[in-house]
Design a protein that fits this description.
Aspartate Aminotransferase, domain 2; three-stranded antiparallel sheet; binds pyridoxal-5'-phosphate; 2 domains; 12 helices; seven-stranded mixed sheet
Length: about 375
């Protein structure tokens, strides 16, 4: 059996090497390292894949959030509602732009923003909602969009973990994750479901004026070189990363299916353990398992992780401290579900290169832990 990794990027490269190497070589031959033609063609291909009008590439997923928020041009002190159990990037971007991240509660089963509680966080200063589609399934976007419309708020979807997932509205209409809000952002960090071999990110929108503004902000606030209309940043997707992503985009659906197959085997095996709760997929979304995250009950997580480690099985806790308890973002609020989840979740290895024997070994090792 091959050694087990949380995600096996080296193995995936071996599988795609015959296509990736010439794509990189072509960039080297042309020396078009910045804004070469693959940047534009990849953006268009991703827009087609998502069925969205505009994909604006940028340097990484955190920049994407910052640029998206800059494009909204919100007054200083505006409030942005975002989940308290999440990755740090939204909070960071808000704080840098002198906006206030308002940490809201998540649903105890899906771990996503709980729309039933959003309205209680809305004040006259609230200007935007940033749902994060955590671990690979969509937040309840239909309800979130209805609330946003009622209160005249902008919605930015943080799609970094859910690219390729599909959301179904109550009228049966289906669309890709990241195409429902006014704006969406994603990351091409190597371990993401669509990852490059360095940093990368993008912003998506169907609105022409927002797209134009975003393009301008990401490029030093200029439309015409050396004429700066607004304060911008320098945030670009490298040509080489775009060339790699062009190859990998063709496999995104296959990759996501492979992740789903691993998740299904885990979930079938672990359902019997009273200490483990496999991921619950909400009825209006698919799950692309950026992470396979179990919720545990009365389990000593450190001891469990230790036991797995001894068997050569890496595990991770995403995320061990909710955002309102982070030193840099302390807020004197209580989010019992977020606090409970950060103490009780544990993620197992998942990816596109897992062999049957590895999956079986992980399942047997987890079973053995509970049978001891
Ligand atoms: C990875 C990630 C980001 C940030 O992406 P980077 O490319 O690492 O900056 C933002 N939000 C979420 C939910 C993520 O998982």
């Amino acid at each position: 059996m091959k050694p087990i990794h949380m995600v096996d990027l080296a193995g995936q490269y071996q599988r795609l090497k015959a296509e990736i190497n010439p794509a990189i070589q072509s960039v080297l031959n042309q020396a078009n390292y910045i804004n070469g033609s693959p940047v534009k063609s990849f953006s268009q291909e991703l827009a087609t894949y998502l069925s969205i009008k505009h994909v604006i590439p940028c340097g990484n997923g955190t920049d994407a959030l910052q640029i998206a928020l800059m494009a909204l041009d919100l007054p200083e002190g505006s409030e942005v509602i975002t989940p308290g159990f999440s990755y740090i990037a939204v909070a960071e971007a808000c704080q840098l732009l002198k906006l206030k991240p308002v940490f809201a509660e998540v649903h105890p089963e899906t771990f996503n923003l709980n729309p039933l509680t959003i309205e209680k966080y809305i004040t006259p200063l609230t200007k935007a909602i940033v749902p994060v589609h955590l671990f690979g399934q969509c937040a309840d976007m239909e309800t979130i969009m209805a609330i946003a419309e009622k209160h005249n708020l902008m919605v930015i979807e943080d799609n970094a973990q859910s690219i390729g997932a599909e959301y179904t509205f109550s009228d049966g209409r289906t669309c890709k994750s990241g195409t429902i809000g006014h704006l969406s952002t994603t990351s091409f960090f190597p371990s993401k479901n669509l990852g490059c071999y360095g940093d990368g990110g993008a912003i998506f929108t169907n609105q022409d004026t927002l797209a134009e503004r975003i393009q301008m902000i990401a490029n030093h606030g200029q439309k015409i070189k050396y004429f700066h209309e607004v304060v911008g940043v320098n945030s670009r997707l490298d040509t080489m990363q775009a060339a790699i992503l062009q190859v990998k985009l063709k496999y995104l659906n296959t990759f996501n299916k492979e992740r789903q197959a691993v998740a299904q085997r885990y979930s079938e095996a672990f359902a019997k353990h009273s200490h483990l709760k496999p991921p619950v997929v909400a009825r209006n979304t698919t799950h692309v398992y950026h992470q396979y995250t179990l919720q545990t009950c009365d389990l000593d997580i450190a001891d469990f992780r230790n036991a797995m480690q001894k068997k050569g099985i890496p595990t991770m806790v995403y995320y061990p401290l909710p955002l309102h308890h982070q030193n840099a973002y302390q807020q004197d609020i209580s989010l019992p579900v977020s606090e409970m989840l950060s103490k009780n979740v544990v993620s197992l290895p998942i990816g596109t290169e897992m062999e049957d024997s590895q999956i079986s070994y992980i399942i047997e090792s987890v079973n053995a832990y509970f049978e001891k």
